[in-house]
Amino acid sequence: MPDDLPTLSDGGETRETKLSDALSERYLAYAMSTITARSLPDVRDGLKPVHRRLLWAMRQLKLDPASGFKKCARIVGDVMGKYHPHGDAAIYEAMVRLAQEFASRYPLVEGQGNFGNIDGDGAAAMRYTEARLTEVAEALLAGIEEDAVDFRTTYDGEEKEPVVLPAAFPNLLANGANGIAVGMATSIPPHNAGELCDAALLLIENPGATVDELLTLVKGPDFPTGGVLIEPAESIREAYATGRGGFRLRARWEREEMKGGSYRVIVTEIPYQVQKSRLIEQVAQLMEEKKLPLVGDIRDESTDVVRVVIEPKSRNVDAPVLMESLFRATALESRISLNMNVLDAARTPRVMNLPEVLRAWLDHRHVVLVRRTEHRLAAIARRLEVLGGYLIAYLNLDEVIRIIREEDRPKEALMARFELTEVQANAILDMRLRSLRKLEEMEIRKEHKKLTTEQKSLQGLMGSEAKRWRAIADEIAATREKFGSGALGARRTAQGAALPAVMVDETAFVEREAITIILSEKGWIRAQKGHLPEDAELRFKEGDELKIAVHAETTDRLVLIATNGRAFTLKADALPRGRGDGQPVRLMLDLTNEDDIVTFFVHRDGTRYLVAATDGRGFVVKGEEFLAEKRTGKQVLVVEAGRECALCVPVEGDHVAVTGSNNRLLVFPLEQVPEMARGRGVQLLALKDGAELVDAVIFTLKDGLSWRHGNGMKVETDLRLWRGQRAGAGKAPPDRFPRSRRFAG
């Protein structure tokens, strides 16, 4: 190897460090850069760096609302080349969003050309579109050239950019913000500018105003696409008080009557950030999957105004019920989150509540007012200094002319003769001869008097905090008048307090269809279309056979009782369909290997059941107590260790008949069995020496006790031998009673 090749040490000092330390240090630096310089908005102007740079670059290009448009490609090029060293696509996308009326409540950019639409279509390429600033953006920039905010050097050190904008408009809450950083996120929905200005004026008048007082003015978010806010007032208050929460937003709709008593629903506003085309595709897909049985058809008749037509499958369906089914299943109802995680004036990320956000904006406006006033006072002082020199020159015009003509160093001579400053002397020497006329002197005296009056007024403003806040209140009132009234300021999102609650049975969302539910001995469950006859031929896996088959409908709920005494609930329409083997119950429920399904039945409101364990203990329970939507089920019968739940039979009579493995039968009144919601129950049959309860049935005494015998049924009406009290020992069953000691044979 040649000796003159550079070595690693030629590049500088090399230090050894742990990889974990190096990674954590660099990742922390990256995270902080992402949080403070990319993803989170500033609480003062509500802008991220890319948006602030866009507006500043457009200001530099003189794209004010009264000027012409310029190509977006030119704007994006300036932003990328001078201020924002990122991809042009990201910059253009941010610019497009600022111009979309359905995305921004108060657009900051006025676009000319195709800037996308509410269906989700993207904007045209930047070479085809043009843009300029809106009046709202002008309000954000107002005073920026009067030393209202700090500037910093750009990434290449060649330009200057504002750290924050003066923000005479409450942009953070008015337009909202969204962003995701490393470990942090922000989500702020748009609000009504007029309401925000009213709340800010209240804070000026009463700095200790509470969230409740502010919410009498701020009625919640105000989305550019309208909609109906249905979040309860308590939740809205909690969200604004903590800075975290959410809002439920529904589409606005109306019923349109048709001939023959039929009707259709017209959706005129959809929730914020929902793409209309995808919404219609979602509804159509759910209709194809038969998950919206109340909807007959949906189509889009929108122009520049949203108009989505929804036709019911039957005119007998109530419109509120139809819409409730759509709200529950589709994006016609959306949840908009609130997370007011922003950068404060010290560039520190933190979550603020509503009063803190408004107070931060007001404090920023106070700083801007002070800085602009100081800047104006300095400019007035400089001008008064020059005008003072001019007035001295007019009072001593002949002497001034003599000095200028005869002295070798006229500036020093003027300064010594009339006690002028260097600025005044230079101004006199720079005067033109035409300025010496009498009319010019009168104009200078008039200007001097006007500036002196303004100077005294501004000095009074700087000397009184109360006057400064009155001036800020006047500015906010002007903003309120300009942007918070008329068509632009009118509230678009309705309040949910006027919405009636609509109760809808969930079964209305499922197509009703007759099915037979089949459970095998090895725990495989399935559903087949139609009500199959008892002698229907059913196929199972090798070594498996039928355990229970029940007629039901797809809208039913099934209750399954396991040997561990837990009750589980399954929806009939969720069961595997077809002629296959089905699915193991263990995959659908939280069952252990030792637990099996004892029985299952279709839930019917008002039905009661007798549930009992093999130890002979049991009780009567309402069917509603079995319902449990979780996979883990619900403990109903508490089973003693070493025992199992043996049975669950419907209560359809006035007497109970129980049998045991000790070949005993006991009949006693049902009223002796208590009704409970959970527990071990009471002893139904006395059992000794390890004997177990085998079966039970509830029947009407006058009709007699029946059991299966051969291919028919045997009925015993004289039950005096077996009648007794609950927990009795019982007697041997009658002749020809099944050896299994089960009433079903």
UniProtKB/TrEMBL annotation:
- Positions of transmembrane segments: none
Extract the Pfam families matched here. Answer: DNA_gyraseA_C (PF03989), DNA_topoisoIV (PF00521)
Please indicate which superkingdom the organism of origin belongs to: Bacteria
Any idea what job this protein has?
Topoisomerase IV is essential for chromosome segregation. It relaxes supercoiled DNA. Performs the decatenation events required during the replication of a circular DNA molecule.
Membrane topology per record: Peripheral membrane protein
Q: What class of enzyme is it?
A: isomerase
UniProt protein name: DNA topoisomerase 4 subunit A
Q: Enumerate the PANTHER family for this protein.
A: DNA GYRASE/TOPOISOMERASE SUBUNIT A, DNA TOPOISOMERASE 4 SUBUNIT A
- Quaternary structure annotation from Swiss-Prot or TrEMBL: Heterotetramer composed of ParC and ParE.
EC number of this enzyme: 5.6.2.2
Q: Where is this site: Interaction with DNA?
A: 48, 84, 86
Q: Per the database record, which ranges form the Topo IIA-type catalytic domain?
A: 40-507
Q: Which residues form the active site?
A: 128
Key words of the record: Cell membrane, DNA-binding, Isomerase, Membrane, Topoisomerase
Query: Which InterPro entries does this UniProt record tie to the protein?
Result: GyrA/parC_rep, Gyrase/topoIV_suA_C, Topo_IIA-like_dom_sf, Topo_IIA_A/C_ab, Topo_IIA_A_a_sf, Topo_IIA_dom_A, TopoIV_A_Gneg, Type_II_DNA_Topoisomerases
Kindly give the SUPFAM superfamilies that the UniProt entry links to this protein: GyrA/ParC C-terminal domain-like (SSF101904), Type II DNA topoisomerase (SSF56719)
In the record, the note on similarity to other proteins reads: Belongs to the type II topoisomerase GyrA/ParC subunit family. ParC type 1 subfamily.
| SMART domains associated with the record | TOP4c
Disordered: region residues: 725-745
Site (Transition state stabilizer) found at 127
Native organism = Plastoroseomonas hellenica
Which gene is this protein's source?
parC
User: Catalysed reaction per UniProt?
Assistant: ATP-dependent breakage, passage and rejoining of double-stranded DNA
- Cellular localisation: Cell membrane
